[in-house]
Each structure stands twice: as structure tokens, then as C-alpha cells.
Amino acid sequence: MRVDEFIALLAELTGQKPPTIPLPFALAHAGAPIAKKYYDLSKKTPLFTPYTLRKLMDNGLFDCSKAERELGYHPRSARESLQDMIVWIREYEKEPA
């Protein structure tokens, strides 16, 4: 699943609007160290960091055929996994700190 597809699905499942202005990678990459320093000083979560940008740009393709064949693994759909994640995050946010 491409990042834009993931964001669109996440927006659909949460009822939020997806970002309307894409940020060019070069600009995000240049601003990432600044975002990281801001986080270190303010403890507010940045939209992106150098690490998160590297992870987005990695080829995150995985082959689970061996796990399917040898362990009987059956992956869930991205939709089902994201729905469960959203429920978990919303429940986690309700818990007192």
C-alpha cells in the first residue's frame, strides 16, 4: 500500500480530511532536523522527523508467503488492521495518565 493510499484509508476510517497540500519530500527532508529540535525542546509531537521520513521512503514491501506456507499465517486487510488500531488508540487516549 502506498503512503497516499494509507492516508486516504486512514482519513476515511477516522472521518478526518486527508492533507490537501502535499509536502515535497525534499522540503520535508530539509525541515526534518528543525522539527526534531522543536520536539526536543517543546515535547510536542512533530509531524515528521528524519527517522519517519527515512521509513516512509524505504521500500517496505514484505513477502509473507513463507509464513503462510510453513506456519499457516493469514494476513488481515489493511482496513481491518487500521480499524482495530483506531479503536485501540481511542481507548488508550481515554485512560488517565
Structure description:
This protein is mainly alpha-helical. It is 64% helix and 0% strand. Helix 1 (3-14) packs across helix 5. The model has no long low-confidence stretch (mean pLDDT 84).
Oligomeric description of these chains: single chain
Low-confidence stretches: none
Give the H and E element order.
Answer: HHHHH
Class inferred from helices and paired strands = mainly alpha
Major sheet size, sense and barrel closure? none
Number of helices: 5
* Average of pLDDT: 84
Topology, number of strands: 0
Number of domains: 1
Strand content: under 5%
Radius of gyration: 17 Å
Q: How does the overall form come out from the CA principal axes? A: globular
- In angstroms, what separates the terminal alpha carbons? 34 Å
The helix fraction, in percent, is 55-70%
Keywords:
single chain, 97 residues, 5 helices, mainly alpha
List the SSEs and their pairings.
Layout: H1 3-14, H2 25-42, H3 50-57, H4 65-71, H5 78-94
Helix pairs in contact: 1-5
Q: Could you write a compact summary of the structure shown?
A:
The chain is an all-alpha fold. It has five helices and no strands.
